[in-house]
Amino acid sequence: MSLSKLPEVEIEYCTQCRWLLRAAWMAQELLTTFDTDLGRVSLVPGTGGIFEVRLNGELLFSRKEQERFPESKELKQLIRDRIDPERDLGHSDRK
């Protein structure tokens, strides 16, 4: 499948809050788990306390709405459920 047809993730993070490292770590986790199944993981600088994760433009997680940051396991499950529901995430699926 060409890269342009693969799902794309955006992680918008607050530059004022210095959340770049958190966003980069989350991007690394997603790219490691979905290495050939994602076309792109983009870091998008924002302001005002934003930390949002989108898949193909669909909001998957909002720090403001949830009043917390996402767990990497949680994001992996949200993405997996949309792009490959049958996929086993190994330890990320265990409670």
TrEMBL record:
It comes from the Bacteria. This is SelT/SelW/SelH family protein. Gene3D superfamilies: Glutaredoxin. PANTHER family: SELENOPROTEIN DOMAIN PROTEIN (AFU_ORTHOLOGUE AFUA_1G05220) (PTHR36417). InterPro entries: Selenoprotein_Rdx-typ (IPR011893), Thioredoxin-like_sf (IPR036249). Keywords: Redox-active center. Coiled coil: none annotated. Transmembrane segments: none annotated. SUPFAM superfamilies: Thioredoxin-like.
